[in-house]
Design a protein that fits this description.
Elements lengths: L13 H6 E3 L5 E3 L2 E10 L3 H12 L4 H19 L2 H7 L4 H17 L3 E8 L7 E7 L4 H16 L3 E9 L2 E8 L39 E4 L4 E4 L5 E5 L1 H15 L3 H17 L3 H4 L1 H10 L4 E8 L2 E7 L4 H16 L3 E7 L5 E7 L2
Antiparallel strand pairs: 1-2, 2-3, 3-10, 4-5, 5-7, 6-7, 8-9, 9-10, 11-12, 12-14, 13-14
Helix pairs in contact: 2-8, 3-6, 3-7, 4-5, 5-6, 8-11
């Protein structure tokens, strides 16, 4: 297993600050491909959010979530795994072992959970498969889709995926060659990021050059977890090209009611008390926290009993942000509300929460 070195000053893994770049406009990107955004987000609400959307829509969306994660992984892994490794993988188990080792390291660095390789068997027949055991996955559905997509990139054949819980919080996930998915290699149509200068610069760590405020997050490497020490919440590094395209795909398949279902599911989750209005009461601090997460550049925020107005340039995960705003407002003032929102072609989001009278 690759050794992971931590910065002696901020204690963030050196691979994190080497592979990701925080720009001056609230956006994070991959250092090796600055057209691909990254997000540093709370992860404990993801699977509950997917479940809530399914309940509102009247049908589970688990398989759609897995498939979108699989297709997003085709693009991500396809760009970073050398062609020679893919070639070896298609004739032996060596490349698939590389993938399994890569996922263990990615899990440790990005907060995905603790991965263990259980079985890798590729002999060019219908029994080809990879099985991993994952403890405390950041999202069971996204982990399953990511494994299937990674195996598909290397093996050059479509993979289905199954999983089962073997003990509390511990799952075995198997990606197996299948012909049921259809054409292999069909990734998501991911919108490339094109830079626009902004006016927010995060204070940098003097040693590694990453944001100094990463010192407030603890990487628990042996569990594949990242903990926000201020809130106690779990975090994960993941691209908006998972969430935003997921909801767009759902809308294409299930209809135009999907955006409102996502917003409502997020609003209901916020009302459970996962977040606090105090986290957005200081506009400057909230602006910094959004930028640290790569979720955009806060331009305007006003909150009161008469309503809430929020404007964010370069917004990501925008439907979840709309639901967050509405839920925080209702929780703070005990008032039912409606919400209006719009997002521009450049990704600038405007949200207005209006109390019901």
């Amino acid at each position: 297993m690759a050794e992971i070195k931590l910065c002696p000053e901020c204690n963030a893994p050196e691979e994190i600050t080497k592979n990701y770049v925080w720009l001056n406009n609230g956006v994070m990107v991959q250092s090796g491909n600055m057209s691909r955004r990254v997000g540093f987000i709370e992860s404990e609400n993801l699977d509950p959010l997917y479940m809530g959307i399914g309940e509102i829509m009247g049908q589970p969306i688990d398989q759609l979530v897995i498939d979108v994660a699989r297709r997003g992984t085709l693009d991500y892994f396809g760009n970073i795994i050398p062609e020679e490794v893919k070639g070896v993988a298609r004739t032996a188990n060596i490349g698939m072992g590389f993938l399994a080792e890569f996922m263990i390291t990615m899990g440790q660095l990005n907060g995905f959970g603790k991965y263990e390789v259980m079985e890798v068997s590729y002999h060019g027949d219908e029994n080809d498969h990879t099985t991993v055991r994952i403890s405390e996955p950041f999202s069971l559905l996204l982990c399953a889709g990511t494994l299937a997509g990674g195996c598909e990139v290397l093996a050059g054949r479509p993979h289905g995926v199954s999983y089962h819980e073997i003990s509390s919080g511990v799952y075995e996930i198997t990606a197996r060659v299948t012909e049921d998915i259809g054409e292999t290699g069909k990734g998501l149509s991911i919108k490339e990021y094109h830079h626009r200068d902004g006016d927010i610069e995060l204070k940098k760590c003097g040693t590694c050059g990453g944001p100094a405020s990463l010192s407030g997050f603890k990487w628990v490497l042996d569990r594949g977890m990242i903990i926000n020490t201020w809130t106690g919440r779990r975090m994960a590094m993941m691209g908006p090209e998972v969430q935003d395209p997921l909801f767009e795909e759902l809308e294409r398949e299930l209809g135009e009611t999907v955006p409102q279902a996502v917003i409502e599911a997020q609003r209901r989750f916020i009302m459970t008390g996962f977040y606090s209005i105090d986290e957005v009461s200081d506009e400057g601090d909230f602006r910094t926290q959004l930028a640290l997460r790569g979720m955009g550049n806060l331009r305007e925020l006003s909150i009161g009993e008469k309503g809430m107005l929020m404007r964010i340039d370069n917004a990501a995960n925008y439907l979840m942000t709309v639901g967050l705003a509405q839920g925080l407002f209702e929780m703070a003032f005990g008032i039912d509300s409606t919400v209006e929102w719009a997002v521009s072609q450049n990704g600038d989001l405007e949200v207005e929460v209006i109390p019901k009278r």
